[in-house]
Amino acid sequence: MMAIVTLLIAPLAFSNGPARAVPRSRVPFSVCAARVSARPAYAVSMGPPTVKSVQKDVDDRMAKTIQALSISLATIRTGRANPAMLDRVSVEYFGALTPLNQMASVGTPTAQQLVIDPYDKSAIKDIERAITESDLGMMPSSDGNVIRLNVPPLTEDRRKEFAKQCKAFGEDAKVALRNIRRDAMESIKKMEKAAESPLGKDESADAQDNVDKAVKKFTKQIDETVAVKEKEIMKV
């Protein structure tokens, strides 16, 4: 069985816009768990949208965008052992690509070492090969029961590279916010023009203003989240 690693060349998980190819180093596997819906929740609801439902959808989707960003940033190395570092590794297991974290438990006995304990010991060689072929830059060592990974300290150039990657994740999250804002504004304007029970201009203006306030609030959270990770990476 040949093991390979994949970093999913796919749209970024929290993007709400059209599908676009993303460099493989920028698509962590784990963010799929926090995927943001491409369609507003009220778009598939039983009744027409209301100002309240639109605002709730905005808050929910933007919160999920922050959640997805946090998961993405967790996969970036900081020079210390962290099980999330392996979230981008998938192994070909019985003919299907399977996330490594679904095939084994991962521990951190020391700040510089990861220990991978496969549930199926016969898959150890496949897991080793997948790790070797990944972009982790670490060589696995196995005793037949567990796999050990020693986490080397980051060089200055590598730290800068990872810091740039953090900024890229942050920018993608901001694109998601803008797409959510666009959906909300379109819905509010449609309500304002509706033939039945049209939304008053003042109420429409207030609703749009609240959406913009939400964008500013979550944009600030993105900047703060990225800054914390960058500081963690650059700390020697």
TrEMBL record:
Keyword annotations from UniProtKB, A to Z: Cytoplasm, Protein biosynthesis, Signal
A Gene Ontology molecular function term of the record: ribosomal large subunit binding
Cellular-component GO terms for this entry: mitochondrion
Compartments it resides in: Cytoplasm
Signal peptide extent: 1-21
Matching InterPro entries: Ribosome_recyc_fac, Ribosome_recyc_fac_dom, RRF_sf
Ribosome recycling factor domain mapped to chain residues: 72-234
SUPFAM superfamilies attached to this UniProt entry: Ribosome recycling factor, RRF (SSF55194)
Ribosomal protein among keywords: no
Gene3D superfamilies cross-referenced by the UniProt entry: 3.30.1360.40, Ribosome-recycling factor
GO biological process: translation
PANTHER family for this protein: MITOCHONDRIAL RIBOSOME RECYCLING FACTOR PSEUDO 1, RIBOSOME RECYCLING FACTOR
HAMAP family (alphabetical): RRF
Homology family: Belongs to the RRF family.
Protein name as annotated: Ribosome recycling factor domain-containing protein
Taxonomic source organism: Diacronema lutheri (Unicellular marine alga)
Lineage: Eukaryota, Haptista, Haptophyta, Pavlovophyceae, Pavlovales
